[in-house]
Design a protein that fits this description.
Helix content is 16%, strand content 33%. By secondary structure, it is α+β, with helices and mostly antiparallel strands. The strands form two sheets. The protein has a five-stranded mixed beta sheet with strand order 2-3-4-5-6, with helices on one face. Strand 4 and strand 5 form a beta hairpin. The protein starts with 9 loop residues before the first strand and ends in a 21-residue tail after the last helix.
Length: 180
Amino acid sequence: MSATPEFARVYALRRLNRGPEVETVTADAQECAAVARRLGVPSVEVLSCRYQLTQGDRGVVLARGWLTARLHQRSVISAEIFEDVLAEEFSLRFIPRAQFREDEPLDLDETDEVAYDGDRIDLGETTTEQFALLLDPYPKLPGEALEQGVDEVPPEQEAAGEAEKPNPFAALEHFRGGKK
């Protein structure tokens, strides 16, 4: 990762009052192109996130985000490039680095935590990271599928009902002193 993120929007925590603050970050065309290169997608046309930030105890900042993106992806089946739109709501907590514990077990039901240094958080980099988590690792066009996927029953077996399946270990039987 580079020292300066492709899409940086630093938010000074001193701006955060007692009540929730709303901050919107939107990537410009250059930043969208740089994020697309970083994430390996053909293009990102729009990347934006609206944050509701609330001051918590001991420097913790609670954040709710509403991310929207318009991008082009390449189908893993046909290699055709297609337009996609993503929208997601998420929650996370910004934790001062001194309080952040990387050695604690990960609880998938808990709110994600992001460590920060000093008195600033980078909402642009956070948006990029949340966007990366949203991307389908195997994108395909709507309605597109493999002719016969590995978890599909071949039509001839489906029509015949539950056909007897060969034992994949039968060829190893002779090693146990069984059939040869």
